[in-house]
Protein backbone atom coordinates (compact mmCIF):
# COMPACT_ATOMS: atom_id res chain seq x y z
CA UNK A 1 0.00 0.00 0.00
CA UNK A 2 1.13 3.51 -0.87
CA UNK A 3 0.87 6.12 1.88
CA UNK A 4 1.36 9.88 1.61
CA UNK A 5 1.39 11.96 4.78
CA UNK A 6 -0.11 15.33 3.89
CA UNK A 7 -0.15 18.60 5.84
CA UNK A 8 -2.97 21.04 5.11
CA UNK A 9 -1.23 24.30 6.08
CA UNK A 10 -4.08 26.62 6.97
CA UNK A 11 -3.14 30.29 7.12
CA UNK A 12 -4.71 32.91 9.33
CA UNK A 13 -5.18 36.41 7.90
CA UNK A 14 -2.52 38.04 5.75
CA UNK A 15 -3.01 41.79 6.15
CA UNK A 16 -2.02 44.28 3.48
CA UNK A 17 0.87 45.42 5.71
CA UNK A 18 2.39 41.93 5.83
CA UNK A 19 5.38 41.65 3.51
CA UNK A 20 6.17 38.56 1.43
CA UNK A 21 9.07 38.02 3.82
CA UNK A 22 6.67 38.00 6.79
CA UNK A 23 4.49 35.46 5.00
CA UNK A 24 7.36 33.23 3.89
CA UNK A 25 8.49 33.04 7.54
CA UNK A 26 5.05 31.69 8.45
CA UNK A 27 5.14 29.23 5.53
CA UNK A 28 8.58 27.98 6.62
CA UNK A 29 7.27 27.51 10.18
CA UNK A 30 4.57 25.27 8.65
CA UNK A 31 7.25 23.28 6.77
CA UNK A 32 9.20 22.67 9.99
CA UNK A 33 6.08 21.59 11.90
CA UNK A 34 5.25 19.33 8.95
CA UNK A 35 8.70 17.75 9.15
CA UNK A 36 8.15 17.06 12.86
CA UNK A 37 4.79 15.48 11.98
CA UNK A 38 6.33 13.26 9.30
CA UNK A 39 4.71 14.95 6.29
CA UNK A 40 5.84 14.32 2.71
CA UNK A 41 3.77 17.18 1.24
CA UNK A 42 2.43 20.51 2.55
CA UNK A 43 -0.53 22.28 0.91
CA UNK A 44 -0.83 26.07 1.22
CA UNK A 45 -3.97 28.14 0.41
CA UNK A 46 -4.95 30.19 -2.66
CA UNK A 47 -3.00 33.45 -3.20
CA UNK A 48 -0.88 32.61 -0.18
CA UNK A 49 1.84 35.27 -0.55
CA UNK A 50 -0.34 38.37 -0.07
CA UNK A 51 -3.65 39.54 1.30
CA UNK A 52 -6.66 38.64 -0.87
CA UNK A 53 -6.40 41.82 -2.97
CA UNK A 54 -9.42 41.18 -5.28
CA UNK A 55 -11.53 42.55 -2.40
CA UNK A 56 -10.50 46.05 -3.54
CA UNK A 57 -11.20 48.09 -6.68
CA UNK A 58 -7.84 49.33 -7.95
CA UNK A 59 -7.06 51.28 -11.11
CA UNK A 60 -3.32 51.80 -10.93
CA UNK A 61 -1.74 48.84 -12.76
CA UNK A 62 1.51 49.17 -10.82
CA UNK A 63 -0.45 48.89 -7.55
CA UNK A 64 -2.36 45.89 -8.88
CA UNK A 65 0.83 44.22 -10.12
CA UNK A 66 2.47 44.66 -6.70
CA UNK A 67 0.35 41.68 -5.63
CA UNK A 68 1.66 39.47 -8.47
CA UNK A 69 4.79 37.29 -8.76
CA UNK A 70 6.78 37.93 -11.93
CA UNK A 71 8.94 34.86 -11.35
CA UNK A 72 8.67 31.71 -9.27
CA UNK A 73 10.77 31.18 -7.25
CA UNK A 74 11.49 34.86 -6.71
CA UNK A 75 13.93 36.45 -4.26
CA UNK A 76 11.38 36.33 -1.44
CA UNK A 77 10.12 32.81 -2.21
CA UNK A 78 13.56 31.27 -2.81
CA UNK A 79 13.86 30.76 0.97
CA UNK A 80 10.69 28.65 0.91
CA UNK A 81 11.97 26.47 -1.95
CA UNK A 82 15.37 26.06 -0.24
CA UNK A 83 13.91 25.12 3.15
CA UNK A 84 11.46 22.63 1.62
CA UNK A 85 14.29 20.94 -0.28
CA UNK A 86 16.45 20.89 2.87
CA UNK A 87 13.57 19.20 4.72
CA UNK A 88 12.91 16.78 1.84
CA UNK A 89 9.37 18.17 1.70
CA UNK A 90 7.13 18.89 -1.27
CA UNK A 91 4.56 21.68 -1.32
CA UNK A 92 1.62 23.16 -3.21
CA UNK A 93 1.54 26.98 -3.37
CA UNK A 94 -1.12 29.38 -4.62
CA UNK A 95 -0.06 32.80 -5.89
CA UNK A 96 -0.93 35.57 -8.37
CA UNK A 97 1.08 34.87 -11.53
CA UNK A 98 2.17 37.60 -13.94
CA UNK A 99 3.46 35.83 -17.06
CA UNK A 100 4.93 37.12 -20.32
CA UNK A 101 3.41 34.67 -22.82
CA UNK A 102 2.72 34.90 -26.55
CA UNK A 103 4.36 38.32 -26.49
CA UNK A 104 1.96 39.80 -23.97
CA UNK A 105 1.48 40.16 -20.24
CA UNK A 106 -1.01 37.67 -18.78
CA UNK A 107 -2.26 37.46 -15.20
CA UNK A 108 -3.61 34.28 -13.57
CA UNK A 109 -4.69 32.97 -10.17
CA UNK A 110 -2.16 30.12 -10.11
CA UNK A 111 -1.12 27.08 -8.09
CA UNK A 112 2.09 25.05 -8.43
CA UNK A 113 3.13 21.64 -7.16
CA UNK A 114 6.79 21.37 -6.08
CA UNK A 115 8.40 17.95 -5.56
CA UNK A 116 10.82 17.12 -2.72
CA UNK A 117 13.81 17.84 -4.97
CA UNK A 118 12.58 21.41 -5.54
CA UNK A 119 11.28 20.94 -9.10
CA UNK A 120 7.98 22.55 -10.11
CA UNK A 121 6.21 19.46 -11.48
CA UNK A 122 2.77 20.95 -12.19
CA UNK A 123 1.08 24.29 -12.69
CA UNK A 124 -2.64 25.10 -12.65
CA UNK A 125 -4.44 28.36 -13.45
CA UNK A 126 -7.86 28.96 -11.91
CA UNK A 127 -10.72 28.36 -14.33
CA UNK A 128 -13.83 29.34 -12.33
CA UNK A 129 -13.36 33.02 -11.45
CA UNK A 130 -16.23 34.08 -9.13
CA UNK A 131 -17.52 37.55 -8.38
CA UNK A 132 -17.68 40.47 -10.82
CA UNK A 133 -15.47 42.50 -13.18
CA UNK A 134 -16.91 45.99 -12.68
CA UNK A 135 -16.71 48.40 -9.74
CA UNK A 136 -19.50 47.68 -7.25
CA UNK A 137 -18.84 50.15 -4.41
CA UNK A 138 -22.15 49.39 -2.72
CA UNK A 139 -20.77 46.02 -1.65
CA UNK A 140 -19.15 45.93 1.85
CA UNK A 141 -16.14 44.45 0.03
CA UNK A 142 -15.76 43.47 -3.62
CA UNK A 143 -14.76 40.28 -5.37
CA UNK A 144 -12.88 41.35 -8.51
CA UNK A 145 -11.14 38.16 -9.67
CA UNK A 146 -12.75 38.60 -13.12
CA UNK A 147 -11.04 42.01 -13.32
CA UNK A 148 -7.56 40.99 -12.21
CA UNK A 149 -7.18 37.47 -13.65
CA UNK A 150 -7.71 35.75 -16.97
CA UNK A 151 -9.55 32.42 -17.03
CA UNK A 152 -6.95 29.65 -16.68
CA UNK A 153 -5.65 28.18 -19.94
CA UNK A 154 -3.96 24.99 -18.71
CA UNK A 155 -7.04 22.79 -18.20
CA UNK A 156 -7.09 20.58 -15.10
CA UNK A 157 -3.81 18.64 -15.34
CA UNK A 158 -3.17 15.42 -13.40
CA UNK A 159 0.51 14.53 -12.98
CA UNK A 160 2.46 11.63 -11.49
CA UNK A 161 4.17 12.96 -8.37
CA UNK A 162 4.71 11.79 -4.77
CA UNK A 163 3.96 8.29 -6.07
CA UNK A 164 0.39 9.27 -6.97
CA UNK A 165 -1.78 10.88 -9.64
CA UNK A 166 -1.96 14.45 -8.31
CA UNK A 167 -4.30 17.23 -9.39
CA UNK A 168 -4.95 20.81 -8.32
CA UNK A 169 -7.75 23.32 -8.40
CA UNK A 170 -8.40 26.67 -6.68
CA UNK A 171 -11.18 27.91 -4.43
CA UNK A 172 -14.37 28.46 -6.45
CA UNK A 173 -13.31 25.55 -8.72
CA UNK A 174 -14.17 23.21 -5.79
CA UNK A 175 -17.87 24.10 -6.09
CA UNK A 176 -18.11 22.84 -9.70
CA UNK A 177 -18.49 19.09 -10.32
CA UNK A 178 -16.82 19.42 -13.73
CA UNK A 179 -13.56 20.34 -11.99
CA UNK A 180 -13.30 16.99 -10.23
CA UNK A 181 -14.70 14.93 -13.11
CA UNK A 182 -12.13 16.21 -15.62
CA UNK A 183 -9.44 15.11 -13.16
CA UNK A 184 -11.37 11.92 -12.32
CA UNK A 185 -11.26 11.01 -16.00
CA UNK A 186 -7.46 11.25 -15.67
CA UNK A 187 -7.57 8.85 -12.70
CA UNK A 188 -6.68 11.50 -10.12
CA UNK A 189 -5.96 10.10 -6.65
CA UNK A 190 -5.52 13.36 -4.72
CA UNK A 191 -6.82 16.88 -5.46
CA UNK A 192 -5.01 19.77 -3.73
CA UNK A 193 -6.83 23.08 -3.38
CA UNK A 194 -6.66 26.32 -1.41
CA UNK A 195 -9.39 28.90 -0.81
CA UNK A 196 -10.21 32.43 0.36
CA UNK A 197 -13.91 32.32 1.17
CA UNK A 198 -15.55 35.37 2.72
CA UNK A 199 -18.31 34.38 5.15
CA UNK A 200 -20.58 36.93 3.48
CA UNK A 201 -21.51 36.80 -0.19
CA UNK A 202 -23.26 40.09 -1.05
CA UNK A 203 -25.46 38.72 -3.89
CA UNK A 204 -26.77 35.88 -1.71
CA UNK A 205 -26.68 36.79 2.03
CA UNK A 206 -29.10 33.96 2.80
CA UNK A 207 -26.32 31.53 1.88
CA UNK A 208 -23.90 32.93 4.48
CA UNK A 209 -25.10 30.64 7.29
CA UNK A 210 -24.41 27.64 5.03
CA UNK A 211 -20.78 28.59 4.26
CA UNK A 212 -19.34 25.71 6.31
CA UNK A 213 -21.89 23.23 4.91
CA UNK A 214 -21.34 24.29 1.27
CA UNK A 215 -17.56 24.12 1.70
CA UNK A 216 -17.67 20.59 3.10
CA UNK A 217 -20.43 19.40 0.76
CA UNK A 218 -18.52 20.50 -2.34
CA UNK A 219 -15.32 18.72 -1.38
CA UNK A 220 -17.05 15.59 -0.05
CA UNK A 221 -19.04 15.23 -3.27
CA UNK A 222 -15.97 15.77 -5.45
CA UNK A 223 -14.00 13.20 -3.47
CA UNK A 224 -16.65 10.47 -3.36
CA UNK A 225 -17.92 10.83 -6.94
CA UNK A 226 -14.40 10.50 -8.34
CA UNK A 227 -12.83 8.17 -5.78
CA UNK A 228 -10.16 10.71 -4.87
CA UNK A 229 -8.63 12.39 -1.82
CA UNK A 230 -9.37 16.12 -1.55
CA UNK A 231 -7.19 18.43 0.55
CA UNK A 232 -8.86 21.82 1.11
CA UNK A 233 -6.78 24.56 2.75
CA UNK A 234 -8.13 27.93 3.91
CA UNK A 235 -6.74 31.37 4.39
CA UNK A 236 -9.15 32.04 7.25
CA UNK A 237 -9.91 34.55 10.00
CA UNK A 238 -10.62 38.26 9.59
CA UNK A 239 -8.38 39.63 6.84
CA UNK A 240 -8.55 43.43 6.21
CA UNK A 241 -11.91 43.51 8.00
CA UNK A 242 -13.41 40.60 6.03
CA UNK A 243 -14.31 37.50 8.13
CA UNK A 244 -13.25 34.47 6.07
CA UNK A 245 -14.05 30.77 6.36
CA UNK A 246 -11.36 28.56 7.84
CA UNK A 247 -12.45 24.90 8.26
CA UNK A 248 -9.54 23.39 6.30
CA UNK A 249 -10.03 19.68 5.88
CA UNK A 250 -8.78 16.43 4.36
CA UNK A 251 -11.49 14.35 2.69
CA UNK A 252 -11.04 10.64 1.90
CA UNK A 253 -12.29 8.98 -1.33
CA UNK A 254 -15.19 7.64 0.76
CA UNK A 255 -16.30 11.25 1.21
CA UNK A 256 -15.51 11.13 4.92
CA UNK A 257 -13.75 14.12 6.49
CA UNK A 258 -10.76 12.45 8.18
CA UNK A 259 -8.98 15.58 9.50
CA UNK A 260 -10.11 19.14 10.11
CA UNK A 261 -8.77 22.44 11.43
CA UNK A 262 -9.99 23.47 14.89
CA UNK A 263 -9.31 27.19 14.66
CA UNK A 264 -9.03 29.94 12.06
CA UNK A 265 -5.33 30.79 12.36
CA UNK A 266 -2.08 29.24 11.14
CA UNK A 267 -2.70 25.54 11.77
CA UNK A 268 -1.30 22.34 10.24
CA UNK A 269 -3.87 19.58 9.72
CA UNK A 270 -2.13 16.24 9.09
CA UNK A 271 -3.32 12.90 7.81
CA UNK A 272 -1.52 9.75 6.60
CA UNK A 273 -3.41 9.16 3.34
CA UNK A 274 -3.75 5.65 1.88
CA UNK A 275 -3.36 6.36 -1.83
CA UNK A 276 -5.10 3.07 -2.67
CA UNK A 277 -8.26 4.08 -0.79
CA UNK A 278 -9.90 5.30 -4.01
CA UNK A 279 -9.45 2.06 -5.88
CA UNK A 280 -12.58 0.32 -4.55
CA UNK A 281 -14.69 3.29 -5.79
CA UNK A 282 -12.99 3.63 -9.19
CA UNK A 283 -13.36 -0.10 -9.91
CA UNK A 284 -16.99 -0.50 -8.82
CA UNK A 285 -19.53 2.28 -8.24
CA UNK A 286 -17.52 4.85 -10.24
CA UNK A 287 -16.01 2.59 -12.84
CA UNK A 288 -16.35 5.22 -15.59
CA UNK A 289 -15.61 2.81 -18.45
CA UNK A 290 -18.39 0.46 -17.41
CA UNK A 291 -21.07 2.84 -16.15
CA UNK A 292 -20.66 6.32 -17.66
CA UNK A 293 -22.74 7.35 -20.70
CA UNK A 294 -20.91 10.37 -22.19
CA UNK A 295 -23.19 10.46 -25.25
CA UNK A 296 -26.03 11.44 -22.89
CA UNK A 297 -24.02 14.28 -21.29
CA UNK A 298 -23.24 16.43 -24.36
CA UNK A 299 -25.34 19.31 -23.02
CA UNK A 300 -22.78 19.78 -20.24
CA UNK A 301 -20.16 20.88 -22.76
CA UNK A 302 -22.20 22.18 -25.67
CA UNK A 303 -24.43 24.67 -23.79
N1 LIG B 1 -13.86 32.66 -3.13
C1 LIG B 1 -15.16 32.21 -2.89
C2 LIG B 1 -15.35 30.70 -3.06
O1 LIG B 1 -15.77 30.21 -4.08
C3 LIG B 1 -17.52 32.61 -3.06
C4 LIG B 1 -16.18 32.97 -3.66
C5 LIG B 1 -17.79 32.92 -1.72
C6 LIG B 1 -18.44 31.93 -3.80
C7 LIG B 1 -19.02 32.56 -1.17
C8 LIG B 1 -19.69 31.55 -3.26
C9 LIG B 1 -19.97 31.87 -1.95
O2 LIG B 1 -15.08 30.02 -2.08
C10 LIG B 1 -13.00 32.43 -4.16
N2 LIG B 1 -11.80 33.02 -4.09
O3 LIG B 1 -13.31 31.75 -5.13
Automatic annotation (TrEMBL):
<protein>
    <submittedName>
        <fullName>N-carbamoyl-D-amino-acid hydrolase</fullName>
    </submittedName>
</protein>
<keyword id="KW-0378">Hydrolase</keyword>
<dbReference type="InterPro" id="IPR050345">
    <property type="entry name" value="Aliph_Amidase/BUP"/>
</dbReference>
<dbReference type="GO" id="GO:0016787">
    <property type="term" value="F:hydrolase activity"/>
</dbReference>
<dbReference type="InterPro" id="IPR003010">
    <property type="entry name" value="C-N_Hydrolase"/>
</dbReference>
<dbReference type="Pfam" id="PF00795">
    <property type="entry name" value="CN_hydrolase"/>
</dbReference>
<feature type="domain" description="CN hydrolase">
    <location>
        <begin position="4"/>
        <end position="277"/>
    </location>
</feature>
Amino acid sequence: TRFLTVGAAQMGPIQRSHTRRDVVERLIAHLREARRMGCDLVVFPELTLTTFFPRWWMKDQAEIDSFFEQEMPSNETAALFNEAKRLDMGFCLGYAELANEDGRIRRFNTSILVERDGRIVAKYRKVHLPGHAGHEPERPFQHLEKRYFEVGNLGFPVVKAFGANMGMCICNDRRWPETYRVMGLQNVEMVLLGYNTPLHNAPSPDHDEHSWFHNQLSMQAGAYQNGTWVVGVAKGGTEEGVPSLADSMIVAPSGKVVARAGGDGDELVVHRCDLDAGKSYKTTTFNFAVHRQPDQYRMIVER
